[in-house]
Automatic annotation (TrEMBL):
Coiled-coil annotated residue ranges, if any: none
Gene3D superfamilies (alphabetical): Winged helix-like DNA-binding domain superfamily/Winged helix DNA-binding domain (1.10.10.10)
InterPro entries xrefs: Tscrpt_reg_PadR_N, WH-like_DNA-bd_sf, WH_DNA-bd_sf
Every Transcription regulator PadR N-terminal domain range: 11-85
Protein name per the record: PadR family transcriptional regulator
Amino acid sequence: MADLTPLAISVLALLEEKPMHAYEMYQLLVSRHNHRIVKVRPGSLYHTVERLAGQEYVRAIGTERAGNRPERTTYELTPAGREAMVRRVESGIETFVYEYPVFPVFLAEAHNLEAEDAVLRFRRRIEEMDFWLADVDKAMAGAKARDVPEPYWLAGTYVRAQVAAERDWLTTIIERIESKDLEWQPDKTQ
């Protein structure tokens, strides 16, 4: 079984629901706010579908053309594709893998900024996070209002908890810098 990317898992999961063409997959990922958890662009989505077809995880079942729009190929999930998706989800859930996010790298070098500059940038990040959290809250409220079962938007609650925890941690760091509890620019001669 080839390792499946997050986007490939999402494509296979969509095709588990029903056959569809790549543009429909893209629209569903965006309308369901899955683009908040999976980086998706139309070009990368088409490439992923082609790769999955080459692996025989999906197969084309027809093409259609509506008006002067480009021809669209409809795909369905194969039994091998369903098995690969399920196995990848199983292993991804049970196996912890540190994913090396980039923000800790910036934090490791934040000491190179003046304290006031770092605080300003931390505050800007918190503002962005608050905006993002409000958007996620709105999306989850919409899912609840449409009676979408919680297992379908469980990832949203997880990501929201992560972002809220980071925001709260940053708020504490700002407080510690401003109160001088966190010595920002220690003597580097030691």
